[in-house]
Design a protein that fits this description.
This protein is an all-alpha fold. It is built from 19 helices and 2 strands. The chain has one domain: Orthogonal Bundle (Hydantoin permease). Helix 6 runs antiparallel to helix 14, helix 9 (194-200) runs antiparallel to helix 14 (300-346) and helix 11 (224-235) packs antiparallel against helix 18 (423-448).
């Protein structure tokens, strides 16, 4: 048995180097095997032990800009076209992440490491540049949401950002993947806070059912303003960081091919929960559409205050807390995604099971990215709203090349052996890629030449 990473303190065991990381992962595997051998509540125990990467990646993607995008959707368009559309975007995310789970559990290697190994340094650096830039800009938007969410309660920006950073540091420095995972799962569960806000908005459930069953036309057609919301909602569910995070977490958790079915179920549960909470956010802000009230799409406090007449002070407070929670969980998961990828690319320790002294580059990458993003949010007159828009563009335009690399990796027999996916899984991923390319091109045209784009659309 080889030492899992470079730079780890080894425990002597009859001449074999076994690290603390190996021991922690072995304990987790032993718990899984005991659960498999039990008869009472076997599947429930297994699901509890396997829970983590899939639920976190889906609820982590219900981040501050995503929930604000859904809020803007409800405020501008109500519940018609976009309720079933959001469900489809989560199905797209599930298709993509299913391949990621398969790749991580079979290869036992991170996404960045495999890209460098199988496609060479050019594509490895391309993927890393794409990820690092997108992740950093997204981290900025998470702290925008954190600052704005607590701003509803009058919390000063410095205090709000400092509190969030303290939580990120506390979760990260546990030096135990299992502890980090359970703490973050507990925070992620608070994404359900949007459900009571939706109930307080008293939606017309018949209209909701009709919207889901019939899927009405796109409001106003493919106008640039509508395209922006369309792309933002896609970028709220399918982004490159999800590939790197979930594959890194699957490897760090030590999942094996025999865990694949359970990991898929766990990811499906995460997608279902995230979709319900996203739809709840749309339902919560739909009263603004019914009453013709415009709300600033980029400030959680403005949405929360605008909702108070329709959901009450409690509902407005819950909405603001939900945006804070969404930004906090995503700040933890996205910074971890960057640290996993850079550790894999540089072949240094990249595990939450390692202590700080053994994996300091990993932890420095994780924490410094969060700290720098938080500092930029506190800079006076920083173009924060522009950053939110740019993040949505990058998320959609950068996803197709990431998906192409994913499909090539998961069909590489040198990596996967006999566990390559079937025709249906590959076809579904190719279809998702085609949709993202088409939407990205349409959105790019609407941004670069909005007048000409609108003129061409008017002809249809």
């Amino acid at each position: 048995m080889r030492q899992a990473d470079t730079g780890g303190a080894a425990l002597p065991s009859r001449g074999i180097d076994i690290t603390h990381e190996d021991m922690d992962r072995a304990r987790d595997r032993l718990a899984l095997e005991r659960a498999r051998g039990s008869h009472r509540l076997r599947w429930l125990r297994l699901l509890w032990l396997l829970a983590g990467p899939g639920i976190l990646v889906m609820l982590g993607e219900n981040d501050a800009p995503s929930m604000l995008s859904y809020a803007a959707t409800g405020a501008r368009f109500g519940i018609g076209f976009f309720l079933p559309f959001v469900l489809v975007t989560f199905l797209m995310a599930l298709v993509v992440q299913d391949l990621t789970v398969r790749l991580g559990s079979v290869s036992h290697r991170g996404h960045a490491e495999l890209i460098f190994d199988r496609f060479g340094p050019f594509w490895g650096r391309f993927a890393m540049a794409d990820l690092v830039l997108g992740n950093f800009l997204t981290l900025i938007t998470e702290f925008i949401g954190i600052r704005a969410g607590l701003g509803f309660f009058g919390v000063p920006p410095l205090v709000a950002v400092g509190l969030a950073l303290a939580v990120v540091v506390a979760a990260t420095l546990t030096s135990r993947y299992w502890t980090w995972e359970r703490l973050t799962l507990g925070l992620a569960a608070c994404n359900a806070i949007f459900v009571p806000v939706a109930l307080l908005a008293h939606p017309h459930w018949g209209a909701v059912g009709h919207a889901l069953a019939t899927w009405g036309p796109l409001p106003g057609g493919l106008r640039p303003s509508t395209m922006m919301i369309l792309v933002a909602d896609i970028g709220a569910t399918v982004t490159p960081w999800m590939l790197f995070f979930q594959q890194g977490a699957v490897v760090d958790k030590g999942l094996q091919p025999r865990d694949l079915q359970g990991a898929r179920i766990e990811t499906s549960i995460g997608a279902a929960l995230a979709a319900v909470f996203a739809i709840a956010c749309i339902l919560a802000t739909a009263p603004l559409h019914r009453h013709g009230i415009a709300a600033d799409a980029f400030r959680a406090a403005d949405f929360a205050r605008a909702l108070v007449p329709y959901v009450g002070q409690v509902g407005g407070a819950l909405f603001a807390l939900g945006i804070f929670e969404a930004g906090l969980v995503a700040a933890i998961t996205i910074s971890t995604s960057s640290a996993y990828a850079l550790g894999e690319a540089t072949h240094t320790s990249h595990s939450l099971n390692r202590p700080l002294r053994d994996a300091w580059p990993f932890y420095i990458t994780l924490l410094s990215s969060a700290v720098l993003a938080a500092i930029l949010v506190l800079v006076p007159h920083a173009p924060l709203e522009f950053v939110v828009l740019v993040v949505n563009v990058i998320a959609v335009l950068s996803m197709p090349p990431a998906l192409i690399l994913l499909v090539l990796l998961v069909n590489d027999r040198a990596v996967m052996g006999e566990r390559t996916p079937g025709v249906w899984a590959n076809g579904a991923t190719i279809a998702v890629t085609a949709v993202l390319v088409a939407v990205g091109l349409l959105y790019g045209a609407s941004v670069v030449a909005p007048t000409a784009f609108a003129h061409q659309l008017a002809r249809f």
